[in-house]
Amino acid sequence: DQTEDRVLHHAVEAGARIGAIFKEPTVTPTEVQRRAKRLRTPLCSPNGAMCRGWNGVTISHDTMHIDGIDLGYRRPVYFLTTRRGGR
Predict the structure, then answer these.
(1) What angle do CA 21, 26, 84 make, to 5 degrees?
(2) pLDDT tens-place string over residues 35-46
(3) What is the rounded CA–CA span in Å between residue 39 and residue 71?
(4) In Å, how far from its chain's centre is CA 58?
(5) Contact at 8 Å (CB) between 30 and 49?
(6) pTM above 0.85, yes or no
(7) In the 8-state DSSP scheme, what is residue 75?
(8) Would you call 67 helix, strand, or coil by DSSP?
(9) CB proximity list for 76: less than 8 A, separation 6 or greater
(10) DSSP 8-state assignment for residue 65
(11) CA distance linking residue 82 with residue 73, whole number of Å
(12) What's the Cα-to-Cα distance from 8 to each of 2, 16, 30, 58, 75, rounded to whole Å?
């Protein structure tokens, strides 16, 4: 909240400059989580910010695995999404 997503803005600028970026999976807080953490404003989706900043992007995803937490996937699942202008 204090940085106003400065790191995200720098990443979008760097990606536009070099034409690619690597980003770890992120979780965008829900409204309930935002209130619980006392965040001033809703945080935007990093993927949406990249798409808008680059007017289109292909994002390579894989499943998250956290020791001790069953997220429903036993093996990695990989997929690509192609977006245009933040959609």
Answers:
(1) 55
(2) 898 888 777 778
(3) 26
(4) 13
(5) no
(6) no
(7) S
(8) coil
(9) 62, 63, 65
(10) -
(11) 23
(12) 13, 12, 18, 17, 29
Please count the other Cβ atoms lying within 10 Å of the Cβ belonging to residue 46: 20
Structure tokens at 52: 């808008």
Residue 12, burial from CB neighbour count under 10 angstroms (0-12, 13-18, 19+): buried
**How does DSSP classify residue 86?**
T
Amino acid at residue number 74: R
Q: Which of 28-32, 34-38, 55-59 has the highest mean pLDDT?
A: 34-38
CA distance 81 to 48: 12
What string of DSSP letters covers 1-44?
-TTTTHHHHHHHHHHHHHS--------PPPHHHHHHTT-SSPPP
C-alpha 50/C-alpha 59 separation (Å) is 9
Cα 58 to Cα 62: distance, rounded to the nearest angstrom: 13
Find tokens 């996937």 and name the residue: 73
Tokens of 9: 């803005």
